[in-house]
Amino acid sequence: MKNSNLKWRILIPMLALAFTGCVTDDDLVQLDPNNQTEATFWQNGDDAMRGINAVYSALLTDGTYMRCTPLLLDLKADDTRSNSPWAAMANTGRFNTPISDPAIYGWAFDCYYIGIFRANQVIAHVPDIEMDEALKNRILGQAYFMRGLYLFHAVNMFNSVPVPTDLTETRHPQRTPEEGWAQVIADFQMAADLLPASYVGTGGPDEGQKGRANKYAAIAYMGKAYLFNHDYTNAKAAFQQVIDSGNYALVANYRDNFTTNNELNSESIFEIEFSREAGGVALGWGGIPAADWGKTSARAITYAPRGFGWTDVQPTVTLFNEFHDELTVDGQVDPRLNATIFYNAPGITLYGQDFATRYASNPTDLNDLFTAKYQNSDGQFADEFDWRSGINERLMRYADVLMMYAECLNELGDTQGAYPYIQLVRSRVNLPDLATAHPNMTQAQMREQIGHERFLEFALEGHRFDDIRRWGWLNDPVKVAWLKTRDAEYNTFQNGREYFPIPQSEVDNNPGTQQNPTY
């Protein structure tokens, strides 16, 4: 009996092998039913919504707007300075980013292309899904907008970069800046054609979701891309559409643009939503998202005043002084100063404490300048050391559209026509009528005035260095010398360092990639 059982135990496996002798390698590949793949995921409208939400989520990681991208945009400008003990951060402002260390700039580069890849998946797969056509168009429009936005950042900061627009190739060659900008503009145009003016009344799962990109966000960014390429005619036309839409207006309180109060307000054209309540409490440093990741920002702790955060980014004395160049119509200091900078003056409080009292024992801090924008400093929190700010990042404000439109008018020869649009921004903070204070400016004089106006309105918002570079100041020895008097970090500037290096991993893994000059 034992021998009989033994025979069958040997025979049955042998028979099984005989009947499966034609097994191929493909037969051995089994799909895990617990994990979806690109081939199994894109099935219905719910999948399409989850897909586009994943494109947005790349904005919340450390490389993008959780922390790194504001640093890359701010630190090279003359409104900021950094004495951070972290060399990667301090060197950014000194135009001395090393290729050997990808911290901050390399993390941002990676995250932009994660966002682009996710957008490309939506663009490739959603057209084949059977779903509500209006919702499909909105999802595709957002994917084009987001791809344009990520690519805008990549081209703007790194100059010659890959421009992947499909999923068929694993490697994408480096493109010229002109090719990169052309794709950015094409993406925003496609987005504008597909997106609604608002999400009120859509009747879909995106009903009333004001934080999603709409038609005018796409048009505004398309105008900005044209402006950065000195195509003032097309830029003017784009900004004119946003202004004529009547959908936007400046908020009465300038500071409402940088706190949790009045988020997604009438001035907001596009902003990134952060929240202390959404998601978990873990920080989204990077990599594959985890279920416990929160949706909070580390900007506040990074820029926070001494004793309330890391104080890695501070305003310059130049910025502080320029706020005093012109008083309001009732003889007061420009109110944007107190919304932008903490400093020693009567009535200045931070985190529920009087500034002078808080720093009384430290003369250096007592006479220093600290960042006020994007701080949870009204007393509801003791400090920023939990790394979890819920303040939305305002990427595009209506004030910016008004100022960029005025710039286009001036560059196209209509200097007088620029006055009213600049004055809309000035009037909010009660500054005198520019036409009376500085009447009949020449085009060159107006250029300088716009530089001053933008410096104060958008300080520490990531616009100033973009302005410096696109205006050609870094190619003008007189302007560079002037910038050195305003910000000592410009003493180490050299031509070519207006862009960040291409990360070494990209150079190594993408054949033919050329490093930016001077690196």
From TrEMBL:
The keyword Metal-binding does not apply. Keywords: Cell outer membrane, Membrane, Signal. The keyword Signal applies. It comes from the Bacteria. Coiled coil: none annotated. InterPro entries: SusD-like_N, SusD_RagB_dom, TPR-like_helical_dom_sf. Residues 267-519 form the RagB/SusD domain. Residues 1-18 form the signal peptide. Pfam families: SusD-like_3 (PF14322), SusD_RagB (PF07980). Residues 103-227 form the SusD-like N-terminal domain. Its main location: membrane. Belongs to the SusD family. This is RagB/SusD family nutrient uptake outer membrane protein. It comes from Flavobacterium silvaticum. The lineage of its organism: Bacteria, Pseudomonadati, Bacteroidota, Flavobacteriia, Flavobacteriales.
